[in-house]
Amino acid sequence: MQKNVLTQKSGQFVFSHLTSPEKLEKYLIEIRVLYQTLIDLPVLPELAARIDKKIITKTIFGNAAVDGNPLTEDQVAKILSTPEEKMEKPKQAEREVINLKAVYDYIGELETPKSPFELTEKIILLIHSIVTREVSHEYNVPGQYRKNTIVLRVEDENQNEIYTPPKTSNDIKVLMQEFIEWINSKPLLELGSITRAALAHYYLRLIHPFSDGNGRTARSVETLMMRMAGIRYVPIMLADYYYRNVDDYLEAFYRARRNPQYDLTSFLELILKGITASLKEMEVSITLYIRRATLRDYYDYLKKKKEVTQRQHDLLIMITNNATLFSIEDLFNTSPFDLLYRKLSERTASRDLKKLCDKNLLLRKDNVYQLNFRVLG
Question: What pLDDT digit, counting tens, does each position of 156-178 carry?
């Protein structure tokens, strides 16, 4: 369904969901298979909470960094772990992180509707008001459409792109109303939640309705729409994928914008690649968590049967928690292993390592040891 809208000052604007199905179908099939595998994995509440915390940190870091926020992932994690009332007055970069956390909290608290989710201007304006709350900007007013003209530039060794979004506040208001009507129309609702959310992301960036925070708002709306479709984990992982592939992300947007037939395959393909990569990463993370939990239980069983000593058991637990390669020297010089071995002889440490290798609990290559995650098959 293509919708042509003639604006007063910005000319014709086209809403389109034209794509090349043969290019996208392989991703959609893989996504369905991967997602089914993911939701079939046993995830206990404690594990889900740990995963959610890790994902939200990476997501907020990525969502902010795509738009140029200079904070590192460690700095973002520290901000998120500190209650806002205990912080000194946040600087602008810190405020952007705090606001994104508030957005994801808002999205996470919403109940999944029984019928297809309908996007509204009110929700978009609310998300923007949260995203840009107390963020200093010459023209931006949180929760209000812009009144100034914006020129977007992408300049690097591969491209020199200039794009002027709709120019006047009246054109923006008209286009946002038309966008809402279009994105909630029956043909769009029948496309599927992932495609529809990606289209909302694309057109919010294309209209660029705000003076600041357009990218963060568009990505947050995409997250909201997928989340309202009942999709777990992946919606909030995408922002991190966009950051790690930021050049491809920007190029996909501009390639779609330049297409004379309004074919959005390039942008949809990028997002589907991001979902596929996120699902694979999520599966690896959950599987690793499950293996670690199972191994801890197995080590407890071996200790109870007196097949390993208390010290050997504690060493295995430390390795499981850290999942790292180590040498015998590390047992004496590196935390946390030195807590167990700094007062013992090298002969004792060698004897422990040999026993754990003989039981196939550890693997050795040259003088480096690692945990055998597949000792149970």
Answer: 555 667 888 998 999 999 999 99
For residue range 292-317, list pLDDT tens digits in order: 888 999 999 999 999 999 999 999 99
Q: Are 204 and 218 in contact (CB under 8 A)?
A: yes
In 3D space, the residue among 239, 292, 280 whose CA is nearest the CA of residue 44 turns out to be: 292
Q: Which of 27-36, 149-158, 214-223 has the highest mean pLDDT?
A: 214-223
pLDDT value at residue 233: 75
Global pTM reads: 0.84
Name the burial class of residue 377, with classes exposed (0-12), middle (13-18) and buried (19+) by CB atoms within 10 angstroms of its CB.
Answer: exposed
CB 93 within 8 A of CB 213: no
Res. 154 pLDDT band, cuts 50 70 90: low
What pLDDT was estimated at residue 347? 95
CB contact at 8 A, 256 and 202: yes
Query: What whole-number distance in Å separates Cα of residue 207 and Cα of residue 374?
Result: 52
Domains and CATH numbers, the chain: 3-286 (1.10.3290.10), 308-371 (1.10.10.10)
Long-range contacts of 105-109 (CB under 8 A, 24+ apart): 106/130, 107/220, 107/223, 107/224, 107/227, 107/236, 108/227
